[in-house]
Each structure stands twice: as C-alpha cells, then as structure tokens.
C-alpha cells in the first residue's frame, strides 16, 4: 500500500466530534461485503491513520521533533493490545479524511460509509456495533479505503457500488457516478401519463445503466412488460450496465446496445426516450473539481463548446425514433433551460416543460411529438 504523507496540524490532537450526519439514501440498501483476506500492514510502518511517523527502534509513533506521542488519539492504532472500537476508528477515519481535504461536513458520513463497506454492516448495524473491536482484516480494509479517498479517488468508486432509485449499482471509472438529480429525472417519468401505457423506451448514454434499471424495476413492480433499450458509446460502460441489470434482476427488461445517441434506434417505435447526456461546456469541464474532472469519464461530461452538442443531436434523432405522441425526457445544465426549450420547440415538440431540481436549478427538459 502506498502511503500518504500526513500533514500534522494543531487539530490532529483532538478527535473530531462523533459523526452526526446521516446519509439517508443508502441506509437500507447497502450490500454486505467480505473484508477477509485484506493484507495486514507490516509492523513498524507509519500508520496511515496516524499523523506521526513511527520510530524504527521502538515502533512507537513519534512527533516530528522526536518526542513520544503515545497519547495521540491516532497512535494506539499501532498497538495491537490497545485495539480500537469501531466507533473510534470511524471518528479517527473522519479526522484523517478532513486532514486530506475532504470537507469537514462530509468526512464523518464518508468514514461511516467506508466502515459499512469494511465490516459488511448495514447503517443500522454499524450504529449498534460501535463498541465492537473489529479484527485486523477489517481495520486494514478500512485503512486501505481511507487512503484511496484521501488520495482523491471518488468515494463511490472506492466503495464500488452505489444506490440509485432503489437499485444497487456497481460503479467504475468507465461510467458517470449516478447522481440524485438523475433520480429526479426518473421520478418525473414515473409520474407522467406516458409511463402508464409505455411498452418501448430507450435510455441514451446509459452509463452504469442507472436510469434504464430504475425504470425496469418500477415496471417489474407494476408487472408491466416494458422493454428498455439502454444505449451507450462505451463498450466498458455497456458491460457495467449489463452486469447491473443482471444484479438487479431486470435483465429481461433492459437491452444494452452500443450506439451513438438515438441515431440507431428503430423509427417511430418508442413511447418515450430518456437521456442524461454529457451537457457541460468543454471549457467548464476543465474548471470542474478534480474529483469529477480527473476521475469521471470526460465522455460522460463534455457536451462540446456550448455543452449542447449531444442534446441537440438527441433532440433531432428522437423525432425519428419516437412514435407520434411519444415523449423525450432530458437532464440538462442549470443554464440551458431556455436554449433547450427553443431546441425542442424548433424540432417540433409540443407540451415542452423545463423543470427544476431539488436545489432549485433548471435541470429537466421534456417535450412530446405531436
Ligand atoms: N445515464 C447515466 C446516468 O444518468 C450516465 C449519464 C452520462 O454519462 N452522462 O447516470
């Protein structure tokens, strides 16, 4: 395991407050994961949860000036006899993340999510087992994941799966991490009358398969034989989407195909088409936080010079693929409401709606063919 240079700071001597924020969207849907088999950290190495270097002679953490800091809240991690409780590990993990640039408001929740993953506990169980002393394999697994997050890897990729509209999706750097805004897009479809009678649908730029799989789960719950075509340019993403459809029990409803936008779809067939396309202007992609810009696929983000390249193409191609009266549902950038409304109207769509996300930003645009 490659290690991160800790940067001792004044606050290091005080553990942060106990985690208080809850991530409600995943509390009931985390899957178990085995943490056995994780390598045990070699003795005498600097502990990644400790801000202090380890003395090569004693194996005891030392302060930079050489003074023993046995009383440091982090140093006892080195001492097997003084094993730490799960609650303490989570608090120290959160402090470690904060020291490495994770916002203090998010670090406790992130540490809890990683602890759920390392222990295989659900959120509820994690809270009940705060006083447990986890075995070495669990501690090592937690430490390894904390280091990856501290090095700038998105939490979701480190965990390897993420919830979306009741589905649990594998996530990987070949596909965009599913976002809560996109859950809003799915909810809009499920509330629209076109959903009640829909038989054929397409999800353009499916990525992890998030939208297609969430819709398929809803159709399955309603015992409706909906066929959802999930299209993506990226073979890796399609592979992921296929696996996710299998894992979520909807492989009979989701059909994954390589394709460029909506151009390859059968003509006049679809009751609705949905897409969360790349809609960020190229120059703005460069200005995104590194966590997104350097870690998530640019193909899933970059919508060309004005961010509208892919939206324009989908709006045009969907006029061919939708049946008369069929509806197009899009996720858009917060400054694109007016432009996308115009694009939809010029392409002949009626009943055009631009709607906001929970943060109050324009995020959704829809229109129906006459
Ligand atoms: N449809 C996927 C999602 O909503 C991927 C979107 C994209 O890659 N732009 O998460």
CATH topology category name of the largest domain: Rossmann fold
Q: Helix proportion of residues, in percent? A: 25-40%
Domain count: the total is 2
- So what's the CATH class of the largest domain? Alpha Beta
Note poorly predicted spans. 1-77
Q: Structural class given helices, strands, pairing?
A: alpha/beta
- Per CATH, the architecture of the largest domain is 3-Layer(aba) Sandwich
Which radius of gyration do the C-alpha atoms yield?
Answer: 24 Å
The total count of strands amounts to 9
CA-to-CA gap between the ends? 59 Å
Percent in strands: 5-15%
- The arrangement of helices and strands along the chain is HHHHHEEHHEHEHEEHHHEHEE
Coarse shape: globular
Overall pLDDT metric: 82
Q: Which strand order do you get reading across the main beta sheet? A: 5-4-3-6-7-9-8
| SS element count, helices | 13
Q: Which ligands are bound?
A: glutamine
CATH homology superfamily name of the largest domain: Vaccinia Virus protein VP39
Largest pleated sheet:
7 strands, mixed
Q: Would you give an account of this structure?
A:
With 370 residues, this protein is an alpha/beta fold. It has 2 domains: 10-151, no CATH class; 161-368, 3-Layer(aba) Sandwich (Rossmann fold), CATH 3.40.50. It is built from 13 helices and 9 strands. It has helices at residues 86-99, 107-119, 123-128, 136-150, 155-159, 180-191, 193-197, 210-221, 235-247, 282-286, 290-293, 309-321, 337-346, and strands spanning 161-164, 167-170, 200-204, 227-232, 254-258, 270-275, 322-331, 350-356, 362-368. It has a 7-stranded mixed β-sheet, with helices on both faces. A two-stranded antiparallel ribbon has the order 1-2. Helix 8 links the parallel strand 3 and strand 4. It is globular and about 70 Å long. The N and C termini lie far apart (59 Å). The site of glutamine has 13 residues, from helix 8.
């Amino acid at each position: 395991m490659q290690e991160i240079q800790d940067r001792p700071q004044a606050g290091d001597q005080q553990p942060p407050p106990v985690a208080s924020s809850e991530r409600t969207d995943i509390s009931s849907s985390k899957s178990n994961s085995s943490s056995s088999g994780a390598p045990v950290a070699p003795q005498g190495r600097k502990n990644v949860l400790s801000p202090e270097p380890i003395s090569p002679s004693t194996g005891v953490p030392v302060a930079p000036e050489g003074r023993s800091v046995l009383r440091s809240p982090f140093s006892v991690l080195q001492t097997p006899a003084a094993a730490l409780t799960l609650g303490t590990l989570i608090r120290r993990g959160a402090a470690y993340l904060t020291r490495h640039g994770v916002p203090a408001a998010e670090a406790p929740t992130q540490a809890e999510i990683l602890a759920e993953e390392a222990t295989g506990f659900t959120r509820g169980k994690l809270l009940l087992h705060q006083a447990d002393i986890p075995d070495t394999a669990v501690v090592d697994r937690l430490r390894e994941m904390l280091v990856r997050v501290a090095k700038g890897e998105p939490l979701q990729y480190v965990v390897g799966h993420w919830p979306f509209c009741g589905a649990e999706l594998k996530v990987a750097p070949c596909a965009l991490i599913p976002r809560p805004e996109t859950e809003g897009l799915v909810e809009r479809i499920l509330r629209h009358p076109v959903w009640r009678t829909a038989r054929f649908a397409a999800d353009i730029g499916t990525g992890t398969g998030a939208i297609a799989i969430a819709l398929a789960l809803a159709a399955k719950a309603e015992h409706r034989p909906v066929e959802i075509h999930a299209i993506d340019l990226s073979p890796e993403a399609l592979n992921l989407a296929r696996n996710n459809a299998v894992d979520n029990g909807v492989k009979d409803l989701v059909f994954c195909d390589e394709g460029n936008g909506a151009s390859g779809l059968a003509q006049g067939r679809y009751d609705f088409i949905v897409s969360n396309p790349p809609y960020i202007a190229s120059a703005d992609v460069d200005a995104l936080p590194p966590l997104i810009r350097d870690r998530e696929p640019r193909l899933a983000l970059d919508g060309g010079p004005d961010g509208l390249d892919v939206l324009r193409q989908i709006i045009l191609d969907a006029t061919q693929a939708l049946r008369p009266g069929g509806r197009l549902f899009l996720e858009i950038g917060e400054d694109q409401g007016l432009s996308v409304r115009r694009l939809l109207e010029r392409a002949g769509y009626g009943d055009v709606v631009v709607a906001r996300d929970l943060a109050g930003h324009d995020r959704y645009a829809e229109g129906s063919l006459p």
